[in-house]
Amino acid sequence: MIDQLLIGAVILGALILFVWGRWRYDLVAMFALLVAAVLGLIPANEVFSGFGNAAVITVAAVLIISHALWHSGTVDALAMLLQRADRGLATQMILLTGITAVCSAFVSNTGTMAIMIPIALHLTRNGRSHASTVLMPMAFGSLLGGTISLIGTPTNILIAEIRHDVIGEAYRMFDFAPVGLSITVIGLVFMWLTSRWLVPISGQQRQQQAAYGMGEYLTELWVPQGSSSIDTTLYEFENKLPDRFVVLAIKRGKELITPPRPYQRIKAEDILIVKSTTETLQRLLDITQLELNAEEALAERFLISDEIHVVEGVVGPNSRLIGRSAADLRLRHRFGVNVLGVAREGQGLQSTLANIRFKPGDVLLLHGDAEILADLFRRFGCYPLARRSLRLGASKRMLTPLLFFFVAIVTSALGWVSVPVAFTAAAGAMVVTNIIPLRELYENIDWPIVVLLAATLPLGSALERTGAAQTLAQGVLWLGQGAPLAVALALLLLLTIALSNVVNNAATAVLMAPIALNMAAGLGVSADPFLMTVALGAALPFILPIGHQANILVMGPGGYKFSDYWRLGFPLTLLVVVTAVPLILWFWPPTG
Q: CA-to-CA distance for 585 and 488, rounded, in angstroms?
């Protein structure tokens, strides 16, 4: 009993830290694993066994393959077919959500959304619809689509491996499809019919760059002969006031220096293109004796050339920018990149841009060299919101990665080779054929997810070993005592969905699977309907944006508030619960 209380306390503490979000989830999971090991809840030879688990290897391989399909432009080609379709609101909704769901069955949700969000923004900028009307349904559609195949989401891979450990046989590639495809179709149709009333549309939700008001604050200043600013560096000039303003470019005769470096010295008769508020501009004129050179409001074209671009991007859920500011990162000094604006929940932030600490879902307006911006997005885990993605030099060999991917699916579906072997081989083939450059191989594995899985798998085993899973299972069964089996499944599904909305879905699957197995054992029925219930519930966190990376990615571009998600997410969750339980019992009977 003491061991049950101890493992319960460790997992509860981890869940609290997951929800708090102060530390990244992989660090929390590793810390919980070490605490459990020190307390003797996990045998010494099993503490790091998760790193050798087949499910973890498979997830890493699938992430590599997903990146290869993204890198080669395969999914782009499918998405860009939308450009030829009718752009009515109903058609947009059906095509965008439908294609997103289909792609997410085989490509990671995050990778699919990174490609589809710019397409959605482009299609909805025709004045007849708002991006917010389609972005949330697209995110939810990507979650639904992930339930269709074994590789659609890491939770399916984990549940398949857990079944192998318990029963001796893992789920095959499309064993999830009967339930997953049915729920996906039901969910998509529901969103097509109701999202116009359930998805909030705020007047603050941005059209392109509206949240920043960029043009309103661009001003040309002329440096007259005798000015005290002559021969000062830009760094010195920009620190003349405590208020933040930025020199975005310098016109010197016919030369346009953009973006200028901090050590660039100002010369007489230079024209400085400055971004600042009206109040800051007036104070700057007062102390520098510079003169307004032209209209106060300038068009973007003064800052854009063949090499220099102004690009929007969204901060990814695992971005290295999170919790840091432009000043911390010295973006301008190190990369020559200006931060022109930051929008959060669809509204521009008016505080000092250099000191704003970035959050997942923030939309940044960046100005700089096109190649440097492309590298910056890759390096820091951001996603461009331009019509074309910034994958300079990306391979266009679309058929080769598709062939490798298809062979992996077929061979594993037919049982010729195991899923881990098939997809690891496919990932290796893509590296050998240079579809993915070797230098990008390890950069594009989502290591926090891998570490999270490897750390939580032994915790799940400890939950089972100490008897805590059995105790929790008995508690759930007690709540549904005397009721039909469907009630027990519904309770398990609700509990799993609730946990997945606040905890990473892979961790949810690992923690809930032992409880599901003990519930099945307690009722003396097959474990399959209970494992399928956990797989489905862990993959569908609709109510909170923190439930999944796809939800976070659309938060900034869609202008959603934290509280907006439940309006569509809650009824969609209820629909899933009501329809999924009978579907699971139909396709996976308890006596099977």
A: 12
* Dist. CA 510–CA 461, nearest whole Å: 9
* Domains assigned to the chain: 224-289 (3.30.70.1450), 308-384 (3.30.70.1450)
**DSSP classification of residue 174:** T
Residue found by looking up tokens 């301008």 in the block? 332
Q: Which of 72, 68, 80 is nearest to 387 (CA)?
A: 80
Q: For 133-157, b where at least 16 C-beta lie within 10 A, e where not — what string?
A: bbbbbbbbbbbbbbbbbbbbbbbbb
Q: Tell me which DSSP letter residue 296 carries.
A: S
Pairing verdict, β 271-275 and 246-252: antiparallel
Give me the mean pLDDT over the 434-443 stretch: 76
Say if residues 121 and 79 touch (Cβ distance below 8 Å): no
Region for residue 89 given its phi and psi (left: phi exceeds 0; alpha: psi -120 to 50; beta: otherwise): alpha
- Alpha-helix residue ranges (DSSP H) falling in 213-335: 234-238, 278-288, 326-329, 331-335
Radius of gyration of the chain (CA): 26
Cβ-based neighbours of 25, under 8 Å, separated by 6 or more: 18, 448, 452, 503, 504, 507
The residue that leads in pLDDT, 229 or 336, is 229
Q: Which residue shows structure tokens 């909170």?
A: 544
Tokens representing 183? 């729920």
CB 420 within 8 A of CB 57: yes
Q: How far apart are CA 74 and CA 96, in angstroms?
A: 16
- Per-residue pLDDT tens for 439-482? 777 776 777 888 888 888 888 888 888 888 888 888 888 877 77
* pTM greater than the 0.85 cutoff: no
pLDDT at residue 396 greater than cutoff 70: no
Nearest alpha carbon to residue 142 among 195, 99, 104? 104
Closest CA to 344 of 320, 360, 325, 331: 360
One-letter amino acid for residue 320 of the chain: R
- Cis peptide, bond prior to residue 259, ω within 30 of zero: yes
Instruction: Please say whether the beta carbons of 326 and 380 come within 8 A.
Output: no
Q: How does pLDDT run across 301-345, given as a tens digit for each residue? A: 455 555 667 778 888 887 888 888 877 777 777 887 877 777 776
User: Under DSSP, is residue 368 helix (H, G, I), strand (E, B) or coil?
Assistant: strand
188, with CB counted inside 10 A (0-12, 13-18, 19+), is buried
Burial group, residue 240, by CB count within 10 angstroms (0-12, 13-18, 19+): middle
- Centre a 10 Å sphere on the Cβ of residue 294 and count the other Cβ atoms it contains: 12
